[in-house]
Amino acid sequence: MNRRLEIMESAPVSKALAYLGLPTIVGLSVTGFYQLAVSFFVAKMGTQAMGAISIVYPLILIMPGIGLLFGNGGAAYMAELLGAGEKEKAETVLASTAFYCILFSIMTQLLLPVMPVLLVHMGASSGVLPLAVQYGQILVISFLFHIPSVCMNNLVRAEGNASLSMISQMTGAVLNVVLTPIFLFGFGWGIRGAAASAAVAQFTAFCILAQYYLRGKSYLKLDFRKVRFQWWILEPVLKIGVPLLCINLFQSISMAAANIAAAPYGDAVVAGLGIANRVIGMTTLAVTGFSRGYQTFISYCYGAGRPDRIRQATKTAYLWGMLGGLAIAIVQIGFSGGIVSAFSNDAEVISVGVQALVAGSLLFFTYGFQSMATVYLLCIRYSKAGFVFSIFRQGLAFLPLLFLFDRLFAVTGILYTQAVADLVTTALLLLFLGVTKRNRTTALAQAAEKAA
After folding, report:
1. Between 390 and which of 243, 302, 375, 385 could a Cys-Cys bridge form, CB atoms 3.0 to 4.6 Å apart?
2. CB of 73 within 8 A of CB of 238?
3. Are the beta carbons of 277 and 54 closer than 8 angstroms?
């Protein structure tokens, strides 16, 4: 058996979770850091430039989310098949999901001619729009390799190679941080330079992942002759991938909705809210990274018929996720002034940004629990419940609350919407898990009997 698979099969649960989760945490955290670094450099161009990248930011989440749809869904199903000892089927899923992503990345180029209209509907003011279009058009072109890169980052984790995923993400992030000031100021490309540096970094990350398969270093071989458009592949991939895509989708929708709600209060409010969203977005990636390692592990254990390891891993993941979220929240609240001031010297932007960062951090520790619980439900085939909770935090809870709080409390209501949405989501998740505990235990036992 492959050494990485042996870790998922028989290593102590905490060791396996750390092995799979820590590289993903580092990789995604560094990715989030470079997005913050880009914001830092762009902020030197003024409030309108900062507003422009805040408007485009939802696109940066949603389009690569397609890579997460096929990457996360494919990786979970591949790990389950490997746990069941079905390598040939896992290779068919690998080829098919990678191909689906490449196909969709080509389709995203249809956004280019409608970019100005799209950004207006996302809340861009007349002052922000020209810069947002310049930034957004280059990023859309980069989706040609960014989306497949996101997909493959997840697929390599299915066979336990979380380290390669981390290396590709870190290389891209470091390259982006180095190139952004050079393109932005050295070459005088302005906000186009920020987008161009991101494109170069994403292409580099894509090449690192592609060579892993093309040079035959992977345990699962990527052969596009195995591509199939069949329901036995699509159904399990979509049942896990669509809800995880919806997390990104509704993060994008909620940010766009918050920008639209904030727009009447001025560009400074949009910029301040955007800074806070980017900081929280970066730290959210750390928690999400651990949940992806946890996802790989319990998917493998589900296929192998090991409910004991699933239960132990889930308890550990809940604890680690919440403790990590609590530590992050303490830092974000305690250093909110310094963090926001690093991105702007506009007093109004700083004031709004600090309030937004503190408000968004109040119940951030619950996100660790929410993220692990949603992944758990999806991987044990509680697909409907997993889907509902994947869209609840940023969708079913956040959007109605935003509409209500904006009208009742104006800017303050917008800033505190996320904290209330976290409270409601966590309460409902706890209630659901309590009510379904016996049924879930029975379902896992039946899955173990089937695997045996």
Report:
1. 243
2. yes
3. yes
